[in-house]
Structure formats: structure tokens, C-alpha cells
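Predict the assembly for these two chains.
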Amino acid sequence: MHLVVIGGVAAGMSAASRARRISPDLKITVIERGPVVSYGACGLPYWIGGAVKDANALIVHPPAFFESERDIRVRVNTSVDEILPSRRRVRLAGGEDLAYDRLVIATGARTATPPIAGDHLPHCFPFHTWEDAQRLEAFLRERQPRRAAIVGAGFVGLEMAESLLARGLEVSLFDRSDHFPGWRDEWLSERIQERLAQAGVALHLGQPVREIREGAVDGFPADAVILAPGIRPNSEIAASAGLALGRSGAIAVNELLETSIAGIYAAGDCAETHHLLLNAPAWIPLGTTANKMGRVAGANAAGRRERFPGVLGTSILRVCGIAVGVTGLSEATAREAGFRPVSATVEAHTRASYFGGEAVKVKLVADRNSGRLLGGALVGTDGVEGRINVLATALTAGLRVEEFQFADLCYAPPYATVWDPLLIAAQQLLKETG
Amino acid sequence: MHLVVIGGVAAGMSAASRARRISPDLKITVIERGPVVSYGACGLPYWIGGAVKDANALIVHPPAFFESERDIRVRVNTSVDEILPSRRRVRLAGGEDLAYDRLVIATGARTATPPIAGDHLPHCFPFHTWEDAQRLEAFLRERQPRRAAIVGAGFVGLEMAESLLARGLEVSLFDRSDHFPGWRDEWLSERIQERLAQAGVALHLGQPVREIREGAVDGFPADAVILAPGIRPNSEIAASAGLALGRSGAIAVNELLETSIAGIYAAGDCAETHHLLLNAPAWIPLGTTANKMGRVAGANAAGRRERFPGVLGTSILRVCGIAVGVTGLSEATAREAGFRPVSATVEAHTRASYFGGEAVKVKLVADRNSGRLLGGALVGTDGVEGRINVLATALTAGLRVEEFQFADLCYAPPYATVWDPLLIAAQQLLKETG
């Protein structure tokens, strides 16, 4: 039995490693287009910013480790041109064919280059992969640009704003929308814009960039341009092989992460997954989801039948020193999905001020009809990750606001307040749900 | 209508304030035995230790605030001698009678003085109330003792160990048991003892203290002795009035926090509450529970019919700089309650090491029969409070380990790892539950 995995970053290496743990006898080959595997792509902006001193610290294991310790063949700098399901083969660039019994597609996503005049000028840098980061780093080091423009206020764009400020650049940020990625909400967008402006980022939101020239974006000075306007799934190779795509354009999978063709699994940013609240497929490409899907796809490719239940779109992001976390549905998304959303917004301390407690801002969303929690967002410097995870757990369980309001959360002066900000928000929300 | 509240700390003032918000016309009187109301009793050890500079910072509001802003009459330094339910009166020390229509009993708890020879010597200090803390502080300031002995390794005893070390004293800690309060578990006790020993606390565990003399406890030098061997509910006044007590000796209440006599409610450390996992009454006196129960008792005394669902025994404690959090049942408690507990223990990082991530130790307990999570404990310097609350939420919802293992928790390098330590522990536990 031969398992071939296309893609060697988060989902791909998780799949290969899990398959090996389950099946010592399986032959496993990972094909990776880039020069490294198993690197933490989410750490790349922090390498640019200097928090990560050496890019190699982002590499979990080198290819040789997988070969010697896990008996996984890793072929880097190798592209797959074609999948031939009828013959159970993949065709590599150069013409070599590789036979497989099981295939995991983990081809990830790529920067969705916008049609902007000038976006191929030499001072323009898409930012998504290891190689993208290397090119930008070299340019910053060698050319010492003073002013950076970031096109796209998504996760990467916002992280890069902080990183480039940390390197001493002036930063301007452009986005056609003025909403936070993944959780359309005016309240949240205002909080983020406030913080960016405080940190000195020049904001140009609400209209598309028209033209990049040497030294300028839409007339605003810029010696370096980061292109991070969004990403799209690398699903073309799957589509060409006849695999069904979902409405998002990512590869459609069932809860076993099987594609429409037997023996072929998909995981990570190239694939859709199930949204637990929308109860429908969704494409929400995130590193943690990629690792989880990889684990399940690898298990099933090795003969198990594990279910990946789905996601809530939980994410967290550092925006110039503050944490912004979201999970579940915003009011806008909830309304489109047929819920009757109500919300409450509170600001409350995370612990006693004499223990350095700070105010955290909370928004909770619930469904008026069922009383169920639908989502939440938090903004603050302290304890955002823990509280977003509390909400994610409540959403996973389908808790109603009424059931959550008296949750027995922990208290001691160094760590918490008697009434957690989440419970204060829940009490506020109960007045709305009635 | 006159609402009388006996006790003006956490539960009592919560009850009075909530009743006022619901019912502007109610006459409300709070009777408090001590000199201050609405103070954060849980902060008292941190005042002794110096983290809180001024004890007055622990007082949320002075009596005059409640009088002028909330129209709540507050009588401090006033004891209730007797409750006369048949005449709907309380008799104050000195003989004055006060008529009530609704009564909330929030008399709290007190140090359960152990029968130790010498425990009334002048260098011995029970530590529970505001006045206790004042007396100890004065002694420490005026006498400058060098060596402190703490009798009782409960919450207060452990917090006082840290505080007295911070004041430069040598500290020894005595307890008849060698288990962590509230969560009997050998693994957890070992972690705590490790930390105490590292911090320089001399441990004398596993046997009762026999004798306190001037300058020594059981022959070990001690110029000051803190008595914190445990607490018991102040329920005698309720019992004398004919109110039913529970098996714990605390006042029995139903989910509306009504006692066995109509019109009388009880809340906080003097009362039992419902344990959500044991599905039985339990006495788990904690500050956060007192506030929540007070809120509900106050609402119902003012005419509402709100339910207090119960508790999980969630708590967190700082032990010489590390956080120790628990929720739900330990294996020992679960076994006694008829479950078939299985557990898993892991140690994992809370975020990337380049973002200061540290290892946290996790123990999870589940029921082999149902697959449900039953409890958990965490020990570490970082992110314990958030993860304990995630577990508490999972327990509130009755999640099975299988449902929790893929919980969509947040990830970004500054805040988390791709696989949260809780999920790693859940995967480990799944191997046990099968």
C-alpha cells in the first residue's frame, strides 16, 4: 500500500505522520513544491517583524527527520502536474509518474492576486509562502525601504502592519472593504481601526486600490508593497482530475474528509469543511483546522474511519499589540443564515486592577428564537484567547445563553474577577433574548 | 415590603443590590456583624503579602454608598442573635427586633478552629475575615516575627504561604492531609508540593498538629501561627430557627435558593448548592459562587423566580507564583460517586517558545461508561484560568471527550499552539475511554 500526500506543510505532514503512527507498514511519500516542509506558515509575519529571530525556528522538522525517524519519503521542490484517478497515479513535473493506493491532497492556498495595475513591479510582494517571506525579507534588508503599503486588511495584512512598524517602517493599509476578515461586524471593525490608527498605521479603506507605481500606491508614497488581498484554494489540480469542488471553489469533502473519488482525501486550506453553526460546507482556511483535518485524513487514508466534525471559524489575531478573537457567527452572517440574531456588547475587567487587570471588550451574539449562543468577539490585551475558547466550547455544545450565564468559571484575585466579562455579557444578552 | 439581609459581604450585598434593581420600592436592610461591607475577602491574603497596598482597595463600596446610591440601609457592627420565622422577625444583639417580609441569610463561614493545644496563644491567628486580617497585619508590623507556621494547606493556607514568603518570613506549612483542597488527587498534590518546596516552604504534611507553644509548632520554630485548617458554615442561627440543614451542616436550599421556610432564602458560604456532576447537594464555599447565589437569592426575594443551576467546584489558586486550577471531579471523587473514571495527564506548551510560551500540565478525567468529561486540573504559569474555564464550559454542557477533542479553539503564534494542551490531553484520554 502506498500513500501519497501532495503538500508538506500543516495538513500534509499531519496526515503523513498520523498515517505512519497507525500503520507501520504503509509506504508514504510526501510531495512538496517548495524547499521546506512542516513549517509554521503562521509564524512568517513574526519572522519579518523580528519576534522570530531565525526562520529555521519555524521549521518543525527537516525532511531528513521524516525520512529517518518516521520512514516517510519527502520530495521537496517537486510539483505535481496532474492527478490521474483512473490509474491511481500522480504525474510530477518532468513527467515522472507515481502510483498511489491512497492519496491525500493538501495543496493549501495561495495569494489571490488582485487585478491591480502595477502589481508585478519589483517592489511588490505577495505574502503567503516560505519563499514569499524570503523574498520580502531580502528586499527589506537590502533596500531598506522607509514606507510600506499593505494591500489587504486580512489576517496577514494586519499581522504585517505590526511587523513592519516593528522594523521601523511607516505603514499604510489599503482594503476595498472596511470589515474585519471572517467576522463582518461594524463594532469589531471600529475597534480594530481604532487600534491601527493609534499605532500609527495610515488607513485607506472602503475602496479598491487602482494603481501601483514605483514609489506609490494610488498616489500615496510606498517603497515596498505587500500584496495580501486574500487567498484562494489550490484546487485546480483536483478539479482537473474530476474531483468535485464546493461552491467556494475549494475541494468538497464529507466528514471522513473523502473527496468525490474513492481513495482520495483532502485536508487543509485546499478543502472545504463543515460549519457547525451554518450546518453547511464552508471554506475557512486556518492553520489549526489544517492540522486537525490532516490528522483525520491521514488516519482514514491508513484505514480508520474517523470523523472531522467541523469548525466554528474560531480565530485570534494580534493587531499592533492587542488581541482580537472571534468565534461563530457575527450578526450579519447569522441573519443571512436565517437566524434572528440579537447581541450585547460590554467592557469589563479581566482581574483586579492591583493584579494588572485590564478591560476587555466583548460582543456576544445569540438567536432570539432558540436562545442559543451563535458567536462572539473579544478585543483586549489580556485573556482574549481563553475567553474565545470558552465561547467556542459553548458553541460546540450548542449552549443557550440562559445555560451559560451561571457557568462556574474560576475566580481568584490574581487571575479573574468574580463575574467574568463573558458572564456579564451573557446577562446583558439575556435581556435581549428575553 | 421589607427585605432583610443578614451578612454584608459577597452574597449579602449581591442580594441586596439585585433586589434593589428589580424592585425600586422595596425597603432593604443589611445587617453586618463586622465593621465593613462588600469587601473582597479573597484579596485579604494579597494585602498581607503586599500585592494590595491598602486594605481599603478591597472594599467595593462603603456603607454610605449603599445608603445614598441604592437606598439600602446598612447596619455594620451589628449581630443577629435569633431568627423568629413564626413572627417574621430577626432579633439583634441588644434585644432590638426587626420585622421582615423576606429574609436572605448570607452569614458566610468561619475558620473551623481545630482542637489544638495552644491554639489560643497570642501569636495564633485565625485567618478568614476582615478583622482577622487586621489583627495579623498589626502583629506582623509590630512584632516583626521571622518564622511563620501555617496550619492548614487549604486555599487560604497556600495563599498565605506565598504572602508570608513575600514579606520575608520563613514559612512552614502543616496539614493533617497531604491532598489539595477540593480535588483529591495525588498527581495534583505532588505538583503543588513540588512548587512549595522549590519556593522554600517547609512542609509537614500527613499528620495533625499536636501542640502549639510560644515560639514553636510541634517543636518546629514559629513566632507567628496562622490557623487556616478549614472553614465551617455559619448556619447555627438558621438551625436554631428551624431551617433545614444539609448533610454538610450548611443551610439546605432548592434551586430557587429558598430554604425550608417560606420567605427565607440563603446564599453564599452558609448554604449548600447543587453539584452539577454529582447531581446532589454540595457545600463548596467560594467567592464567585457566593456572588452568583446572592444575585439569584436577591432576585427571588424581590419577586422573581430565577434558578441557580449549580456548581462544578471550579477554582483557581496561586501557589508561590504558579496557577493551580481545578473543575469538576477528580478520579477519587468520581469513583465514590459511582462513575468509572479514567484519566490522562499531559504536559504541553501554551504557545510558541519564541512568544514566551511555557509548558502547562493537564490532567483530564472522564467516565469510561458514558465517555463524558468529568473534570480536569491544570498547573502552570500561563493560561491556566482560560483552560479551566474551557473545561468548566464543557462540563456545564455535558460534552463527551469525543465531542471535545476537535473543539475549534483559536490559534495564532502569540497566543496559542496549533494543538491546545487540552486537545492533546483529550486525544490521550480517548485512548483510555476507547
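Residues 171 and 201 of chain A are 5 Å apart (CA to CA). Residues 287-301 of chain A form the longest helix (15 residues).
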